[in-house]
Design goal:
Number of helices: 9
Structural class: alpha/beta
CATH topology: Rossmann fold
Radius of gyration: 19 Å
CATH class: Alpha Beta
CATH architecture: 3-Layer(aba) Sandwich
Shape: globular
Helix content: 25-40%
Order of helices and strands: EEEHEEEHHHEHEHEEHHH
């Protein structure tokens, strides 16, 4: 169980990027973390990973996250965490040496699926290929909790759709995905839970099963939680096209 209690992250001279967030994420879930730009999604993930200082507590199975258990978490981000001067083969060897639970068979299969070269420096990959490789590393590290922050940027819709199917097929029962993305409609079919952030606060947290029983889709749920005003476009157009 990954447990966040009253997590707050402040930046100098600004409002809290994350404010009083408390969450419990059991193993085996696929969780969508949603919110508008600046809602605090990336900041919250970086707090979990220990990349930001914060107020509050984060524990994994009741223990603080530190060097003894941090390998239980992995991270895929479009900011990239790989070594650009190394090849995919080099990365495979490095990860196998440093992560006892590294999934080499999965690494090889995903490299083949994405048709990525193994002997080419990662820095020479296209943006889409770099993001694909970042996802591969996160999925193959052997972590129990895999955090993904907009991991599909630069990939076409067919690559994304096929990857969702592959992801569902390869995950072990104890593996957990925390996925931040704006592609709500694409991921709604395979996530089991939706957490919504707004201005750094959790404004909604529901299982997809509950939404289905209520006859709501993910987009409807999000619009209701954010109190989306359907007439905002018409009002803007009236102002832009009206006579002065």
């Amino acid at each position: 169980m990954l447990t966040l209690t009253n997590i707050t992250k402040s930046y100098p001279g600004k409002k809290n990027a994350v404010e009083n967030v408390s969450l419990s994420i059991p193993r085996g879930e696929i969780v969508g973390l949603f919110g508008e730009n600046g809602a605090g999604k990336t900041t919250l993930m970086k707090c979990i990973l220990g990349l930001h200082r914060y107020q509050g507590t984060i524990t994994l199975d009741g223990q603080p996250l530190d060097r003894k258990n941090i390998e239980k978490l992995s991270f895929a981000t479009s900011e990239h965490t790989f070594f650009p001067a190394l090849t995919a083969k080099d990365h495979r060897e490095f990860y196998a040496d440093h992560f006892p639970a590294f999934r080499g068979k999965r690494f090889d299969a995903l490299m083949e699926f994405f048709e990525l070269p193994t002997n080419k420096k990662i820095g020479s990959f296209s943006t889409g290929q770099k993001n694909q490789f970042e996802v591969i590393l996160a999925l193959c590290q052997g972590a129990d909790y895999i955090l993904m922050d907009e991991p599909f940027a630069g990939n076409d819709v067919f690559n994304r759709e096929d990857f969702y199917k592959v992801l569902l097929g390869i995950l072990e029962p104890e593996e957990t995905i925390l996925l931040s993305t704006h592609l709500l409609e694409e991921v709604s079919a395979f996530i089991g839970r939706a957490i919504l952030l707004h201005k750094g606060k959790v404004v909604a947290d529901r299982s997809m099963l509950d939404l289905e029983e209520e006859g709501k889709d993910l987009m409807t749920f999000v619009k209701e939680a954010y109190r989306y005003k359907a007439d905002r476009v018409l009002k803007a157009l009236d102002k832009l096209t009206g006579e002065e």
